[in-house]
Write a structure and sequence with these properties.
Belongs to the peptidase C1 family. The chain has 11 helices and 10 strands. The strands form 2 sheets. Strands 1, 3, 5, 6, 7, 8 and 9 form a 7-stranded mixed beta sheet that branches. Bound molecules: 2-acetamido-2-deoxy-beta-D-glucopyranose (NAG) (4 copies).
Length: 354
């Protein structure tokens, strides 16, 4: 009986009004659900981005043989994502250079600085040479003359001063003696502390030359690079395969002086590499975005004076997968130059003494 009474309520106007309210709530609910579904479409795309960045991270791990503990994995992935975002923004600015993921993509700027760079200290140097006004060739590339050895990777050892100077002596030895021989950076790292160098904790190109003037330098084969500090192997020091009797510091900021020297032989130089542009450099010509607080050493192996902008061809020691097969091109601008590359450049002289 009660049931029947209730059903008769359907005819009741109050009940109809309640029904209308319920229906309205239902419609609002549907609209809400629709809106929610619409908005939730955003999360699958965030998820896609996460997944594609994670697969890029996996490729990176494989390519550079990275090994992480599970906790470190999360931290490194986060840094990698931040760096990836930075690289994308920089590349969207369409400049003369491009950045890309490389061995350093899981490091913060602080870590990069700590592992790879060290501020330069130059004490007294020999007299500066004044640039002679020779007729310079419009382009030079010592790689084409077979005067440059393979690109090596210094690893987490701040010893670029050893790579830049052995590179300069390798070039000079080839040009003035006729044979290309890979020389030992490790000998300089282990044995030149008395000349002011600090092994894998930094040093200077001048001190490395002073060591080689005194002791000559043995080969990479006899005294291979270990990417860490070691005790000086005294017995190998006497087995030098290349010797120099002097070196020249080019007058600071003398662009023509550096060009004149590079026309003669590969030249060691110092730069400020404490810059994202160095950390992620992938290719092109660097024209700006770096300072002149020298903290890294490199080898200038050529230049191009017909291109726009003109540029130095520079060999680095961060492995062949960095930059342009291990090289970087830096615009030639008067004065200290881009990244200070013309501030403290030097080359070995009086080479053929053996
Ligand atoms: C070394 O070279 C400089 C020029 O750079 C020269 O002034 C100096 O006399 C040379 N030293 C020796 C011992 O030849
Ligand atoms: C120098 O640059 C010009 C213009 O970009 C290029 O055509 C030429 O091949 C370059 N020369 C060398 C030796 O790389
Ligand atoms: C070379 O340039 C640097 C940076 O601008 C400057 O500090 C230094 O005084 C210059 N040196 C010479 C000798 O002009
Ligand atoms: C042409 C020349 O001087 N060659 C010399 C190069 O250096 C080696 C030693 O490493 C000498 O034996 C060569 O005579």
């Amino acid at each position: 009986m009660e049931g029947f009474l209730s059903s008769s309520k359907r005819e009741n106007p109050t009940f109809k009004r309640n029904l209308a309210i319920i229906a309205a709530i239902g419609v609002i609910g549907l609209i809400g659900t629709f809106a929610y579904l619409q908005s939730s479409r955003a999360s699958p795309s965030l998820l896609d981005q996460y997944q594609s960045e994670e697969s890029e991270f996996q490729e990176f791990i494989q390519k550079y043989n990275k090994e992480y503990t599970p906790e470190e994995y999360e931290i490194r992935f986060q840094i990698f994502q931040d760096n990836l975002a930075f690289i994308r923004v920089q590349n969207s600015l369409n400049r003369d250079w491009v950045l890309g993921v490389n061995e350093f993509a899981d490091l913060t700027m602080e870590e990069f600085r700590k592992y790879y760079l060290s501020p330069m200290q130059f004490s007294d140097h020999p007299e500066y040479s004044n640039s002679e006004s020779l007729k310079l060739p419009s382009s030079v590339d010592w790689r084409q003359s077979g005067a440059v050895t393979v690109v090596q990777n210094q690893g987490r050892c701040s010893c670029a001063y050893a790579f830049a100077t052995t590179g300069a002596v390798e070039g000079a030895w080839k040009i003035f003696n006729g044979t290309l021989v890979q020389l030992s950076e490790q000998e300089i790292i282990d044995c030149s502390r008395n000349f002011g160098n600090r092994g894998c904790e930094g040093g200077s190109t001048d001190s490395a030359y002073k060591y080689m003037i005194k002791n000559g330098i043995t080969s990479e084969t006899k005294y291979p690079f270990m990417a860490q500090n070691g005790l000086c192997k005294i017995s190998l020091v006497s087995e030098s395969v290349a010797e120099i009797s002097n070196f020249t510091d080019i007058y600071p900021n003398d662009t023509v002086g550096v060009e004149t020297a590079v026309a003669q032989q590969p030249v060691s130089a110092n730069v400020q590499a404490d810059e994202a542009i160095w950390k992620y450099y992938k290719g092109g010509v660097i024209t700006s975005n770096c300072g002149t607080n020298l903290d890294h050493s490199v080898l200038i192996v050529g230049y191009n004076l017909t291109s726009s902008p003109n540029y130095w061809i520079v060999k680095n020691s961060w492995g062949p997968s960095w930059g342009e097969q291990g090289y970087i091109r830096i615009a030639i601008k008067a004065g200290p130059g881009v990244c200070g590359i013309q501030m403290h450049a030097s080359y070995p002289t009086a080479v053929n003494r053996l």
